[in-house]
C-alpha cells in the first residue's frame, strides 16, 4: 500500500532524481535506510523507475506526435511493432480500440514514410495517419513529470533538494562516445546507479565517472526522468487533450497547463490542434471537474478534443506490462 512517505519519496525524486537516500529520508521524515528500502520496493513493484536518457537533440532528432487509425483486428500487432522500436518513446491505445497514439524520434527533414511506416505490419491495416511535429515542450522536456499524486513538500524541503541538484544545463551538447556505452546503458536501466557501480561497469575510476557525468549533464546531453505509473497512485483515468489556441496565446496557455497538477506533459505542435496535454485524473468525475474548472479557466482555448487512453504500452524509457514499468526489452 502506497502511503504518504512513499509519495514524499517520489516527490523528492521529482525535484532531484539522484538525491542521496540520506537527503530523501530527511525530507520524507524517515531514516536513510527506510528511504532506500521504500524506494527499492516501489521500483521492484514497477510503480516507478528513475532513468538516465540522452537528449534526442544531441543526435539531431525531433519528436513527432503520431495518431494512427487502423483496423481493429490489426491493432495488437501494429502496436507491438511500434512499442519494440527504439526510436519510439511513447505508445498508447485510445478509447474505441482502433487508434494508436505514439511519439517518434526522427530528424525534422525525414520523409514521412521513413518516420512511421518502415518495419511495420502491412500498411493495408492502417486506415488513417496524422503526423505532427512537437515544436516545444512546456515546463519540462520529460514525458512523465506528473506531480499530482500528493506528497507535498515545504518550500524549505524543495530548496534543500534543488540546492543539492547539479546546476541547470548550459550547453553546448557533449555527444556521447562509444566509451560511454556501459555508463549510459547502466543509467538507462537505473538512473540512480552509484558512482562506485558505474566505475565497476566502465573500468574507470570514480573520479573519471564523476567528470564524465558532469560533462554530459551540464551540457544537457544527459537528463534524468522519473517514470511513474499513475494507477497505483490512485489515478485511473488517463487522457490526452488536443487543444486549438491562437499563436498569440500559445506560450501562456502552454505554461499554465504545464503547471497543473493533473498534467504530465504539455507541448506545442504543428497541426489543427496545436497543443497536446497528457492528463492523469482519479476517475471520470475528476476528469470532468478538471475540464470544467481548470481547463475552462484558461483563456485562449478555442477548441478541444479528447482521447481517453485505455492502455499504455510504453512511456519515456519503460515498457508497460502486467501493470508494471519494466526496462525496454523482452517482457
What would you note in describing this structure?
The protein has a domain at 234-309: Lrp/AsnC effector binding domain/regulation of amino acid metabolism (RAM) domain (Alpha-Beta Plaits, 2-Layer Sandwich), CATH 3.30.70. Helices cover 33% and strands 29% of the residues. It has 11 helices and 12 strands. An 8-stranded antiparallel barrel has the order 2-4-3-10-7-9-8-5. A two-stranded antiparallel sheet has the order 1-6. The chain is globular.
* Secondary-structure element string: HHHEEHEEHEHHHHEEHEEHEEE
> Mean pLDDT, nearest integer?
89
Give the total of beta strands.
12
The helical percent reads 25-40%
Q: What is the tally of helical segments?
A: 11
Spatial strand order of the main sheet = 2-4-3-10-7-9-8-5
The CATH architecture of the domain at 234-309 can be named as 2-Layer Sandwich
Detail the poorly predicted runs: none
Shape: globular
Output the CATH class name of the domain at 234-309.
Alpha Beta
Here the CATH topology of the domain at 234-309 equals: Alpha-Beta Plaits
User: For the record, what is the CATH homologous superfamily label of the domain at 234-309?
Assistant: Lrp/AsnC effector binding domain/regulation of amino acid metabolism (RAM) domain
Into which percentage range does the β-strand content fall?
Answer: 25-35%
Rg, Cα atoms, Å: 20 Å
Query: Which class best fits the helix and strand makeup?
Result: alpha+beta
**What is the CA-CA span between the terminal residues?**
25 Å
Task: Give the biggest sheet.
Answer: 8 strands, antiparallel, barrel
Amino acid at each position: 500500500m502506497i502511503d504518504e512517505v512513499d509519495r514524499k519519496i517520489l516527490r523528492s525524486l521529482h525535484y532531484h532524481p539522484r538525491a542521496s537516500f540520506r537527503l530523501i529520508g530527511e525530507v520524507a521524515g524517515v531514516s536513510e535506510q527506510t528511504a532506500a528500502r521504500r524506494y527499492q520496493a516501489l521500483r521492484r513493484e514497477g510503480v516507478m523507475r528513475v532513468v538516465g536518457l540522452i537528449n534526442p537533440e544531441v543526435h539531431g532528432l525531433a519528436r513527432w506526435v503520431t495518431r494512427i487509425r487502423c483496423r481493429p483486428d490489426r491493432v495488437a500487432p501494429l502496436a507491438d511493432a511500434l512499442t519494440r522500436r527504439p526510436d519510439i518513446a511513447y505508445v498508447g491505445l485510445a478509447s474505441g480500440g482502433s487508434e494508436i497514439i505514439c511519439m517518434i524520434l526522427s530528424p525534422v527533414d525525414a520523409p514521412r514514410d521513413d518516420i512511421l511506416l518502415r518495419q511495420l505490419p502491412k500498411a493495408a491495416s492502417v486506415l488513417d495517419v496524422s503526423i505532427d511535429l512537437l515544436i516545444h515542450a512546456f515546463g519540462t522536456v520529460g514525458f512523465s513529470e506528473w506531480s499530482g499524486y500528493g506528497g507535498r513538500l515545504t518550500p524549505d524541503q524543495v530548496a534543500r533538494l534543488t540546492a543539492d541538484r547539479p546546476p541547470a544545463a548550459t550547453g553546448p551538447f557533449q555527444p556521447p562516445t562509444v566509451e560511454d556505452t556501459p555508463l549510459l546503458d547502466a543509467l538507462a536501466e537505473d538512473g540512480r546507479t552509484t558512482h562506485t557501480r558505474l566505475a565497476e561497469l566502465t573500468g574507470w575510476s570514480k573520479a573519471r565517472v564523476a567528470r564524465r557525468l558532469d560533462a554530459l549533464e551540464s551540457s544537457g546531453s544527459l537528463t534524468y526522468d522519473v517514470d511513474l505509473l499513475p494507477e497505483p497512485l490512485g489515478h485511473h483515468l488517463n487522457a490526452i487533450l488536443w487543444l486549438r489556441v491562437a499563436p498569440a496565446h500559445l506560450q501562456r496557455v502552454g505554461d499554465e497547463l504545464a503547471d497543473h497538477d493533473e498534467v504530465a506533459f504539455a507541448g506545442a505542435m504543428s497541426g489543427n490542434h496545436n497543443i497536446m496535454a497528457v492528463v492523469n485524473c482519479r476517475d471520470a468525475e475528476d476528469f470532468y471537474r478538471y475540464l470544467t474548472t481548470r481547463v475552462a479557466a484558461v483563456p485562449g482555448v478555442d477548441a478541444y478534443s479528447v482521447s481517453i487512453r485505455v492502455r499504455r504500452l510504453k512511456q519515456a524509457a519503460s515498457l508497460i506490462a502486467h501493470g508494471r514499468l519494466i526496462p525496454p526489452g523482452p517482457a
